[in-house]
Design a protein that fits this description.
The chain is an alpha/beta fold. It has 16 helices and 19 strands. The strands form 5 sheets. The chain has a 7-stranded parallel sheet with strand order 3-2-1-4-5-6-11, with helices on both faces. It has 2 domains: about 300 residues, NAD(P)-binding Rossmann-like Domain (Rossmann fold, 3-Layer(aba) Sandwich); about 160 residues, Alpha-D-Glucose-1,6-Bisphosphate, Chain A, domain 4 (2-Layer Sandwich), CATH 3.30.530.
């Protein structure tokens, strides 16, 4: 079949794409920016890439007529700016209008479980999208999931942060709310299983794992699976705003996402019974097993996608291309060079920078800067990185975003996503003479930007000097 896949750089679609290709489907991938797509991971024989922005209906004319099935996997919950409910409705309307002009017989939409009488803004928006997509020339199959557990998923990483960092937790009352978590592997099996199944046309299904748990039980079972002892005390006085700040400071989530998650976590997300799993031959995975499977992927450095890489930022909104050309005029620069003793060793060090590896020199200063960024409402250092050894354009890297990661050119270019009175880039490049050039560029915004640069100049002198020295020196 010819399949249209939206949200390709998002968490779910990156798990779904290789399975679609392995099953022999011809896949047309919709991306906002082609530079964010890693072609090296896929055979291009049955894969086509087109640039589309579902907020701009004119860009959707590239979607071919002769598609059979389309996946709608677009989500704006973690957006930092704008009204995500309105954005999701506009995207869904533009998608529907364009797909109705094609030969598509089925649209498969992944939504959230919305059985409660009172819904959060997030779940209400998901339900509204289903309404927008319904009643069309194509048949709509809606799959509704709650908490998705898998390496790199937002739910998994937030639970992991809480359990691994806090031996004792004073938590809000919503930790008693029940939910029905589902393994990412099962989600992909459902998404694949309903393709072309006429009995699923114009039907909606709740999908969940075999366990119904409170969020407190999820945290404690996670801890037990990891061999940790944790104590949780629930207090009734935490307001939603305080709860959001609690999640924001303890975990790697943005405040916008934390706020939406807290509002959703106050509502039970339990599946209405159906026989879809049985009819598709899907064996539901228990919660503890899904945790073990996730850590298997992490330990093998095989995390295919991460919610942190998919977080909405101005870079993705405006496109990577706008930021790739590092400005020259009106900028402050710190440029340092060093002779590389072992080229491959230095490249490996550059490609492993940040995350658990750290920044090679003055890591405590980097952590302080990340903490200050969190206090200012920024992303901080907790995002880490998806892989310990690989980088691609669009990846989150602590409080940076990868713009260029080209090993053939021996060049890595990062853009700062921390809170700054200006814009910052950090570049590493090794030339043909094995000279490593490390360039920090800062374009200040007004007087505050200039004062900021001069205030951190002594720390830059210490950190950047030590960092390039460590990268350039041979392996022990």
């Amino acid at each position: 079949m010819k399949v249209l896949l939206t949200g390709v750089t998002g968490y779910i679609a990156q798990r779904l794409l290789p399975v679609l290709l392995a099953n022999g489907h011809d896949v047309i991938c919709c991306v906002r920016d082609k530079k964010r797509f890693n072609f090296k991971n896929y055979s291009t024989l049955n894969l086509t890439l087109i640039e589309t922005d579902f907020l701009n209906k004119d860009t959707l004319q590239q979607i071919p007529y002769d598609i059979d099935v389309a996946y709608y996997l677009i989500h704006s919950m973690s957006t930092e700016t704008g009204d995500f409910e309105n954005m999701e409705e506009v995207c869904a309307s533009n998608f529907k209008n364009r797909i109705e002009q094609t030969n598509a017989k089925q649209v498969i939409y992944l939504s959230g479980i919305s059985n409660a009488d009172e819904l959060s803004k997030h779940l209400s928006s998901r339900k509204n999208v289903e309404t927008v997509l319904s009643g069309s020339s194509f048949a709509l199959t809606t799959l509704k999931a709650g908490i998705i557990v898998g390496s790199g998923s937002a739910s998994f990483e937030i639970i992991r942060d809480l359990v691994e960092k806090l031996p004792i937790m004073i938590t809000p009352k919503w930790l008693e709310t029940k939910c029905q978590p589902i393994a990412i592997r099962n989600v992909v099996e459902f998404l694949i299983g309903v393709i072309g199944k006429a009995e699923t046309y114009n039907n909606s299904y709740d999908i969940g794992g075999p366990d119904i748990l409170s969020y407190k039980e999820m945290l404690l079972r996670f801890a037990k699976t990891r061999g940790l002892t944790r104590h949780i005390f629930i207090v009734p006085v935490m307001t939603p705003k305080i709860s959001s700040y609690w999640l924001y400071f303890v975990t790697a989530t943005s405040f916008a996402l934390a706020k939406n998650l807290v509002n959703s976590m106050k509502i039970e997300v339990i599946c209405k019974p159906n026989n879809l799993a049985q009819s598709l031959g899907i064996k539901l995975i228990k919660y503890e097993t899904s945790i073990e499977m996730a850590f298997d992927k992490i330990e093998q450095n095989q995390v295919l996608s991460s919610w942190k890489d998919a977080q909405t930022s101005k870079i993705f909104k405006e496109g990577l291309s706008k930021f790739i050309e590092v400005p020259v005029n009106g900028c402050f620069k710190d440029i340092r060079s060093a002779k590389v003793e072992e080229g491959n060793t230095s490249i490996d060090k550059i490609w492993a920078i940040g995350g658990t590896t750290g920044w090679y020199y003055g890591n405590w200063l980097w952590k302080i800067r990340g903490f200050l960024d969190k206090l200012a409402g920024g992303v901080g250092m907790r995002r880490g990185r998806k892989s310990d050894t690989e980088l691609i354009s669009g990846d989150a890297l602590d409080f940076w975003r990868v713009l260029i990661a080209n090993k053939d050119e021996k060049r890595l270019l990062l853009y700062a996503e921390m809170k700054l009175p200006g814009e910052a880039w950090l570049e590493f490049k090794i030339d043909k003479n094995d000279i490593l050039t490390q360039t920090a560029t800062f374009r200040p915004l007004g007087l505050m930007g200039r004062l900021y640069w001069y205030s951190v100049l002594p720390f830059h002198g210490l950190i950047f000097k030590g960092m390039i020295k460590k990268i350039a020196e041979p392996a022990d």
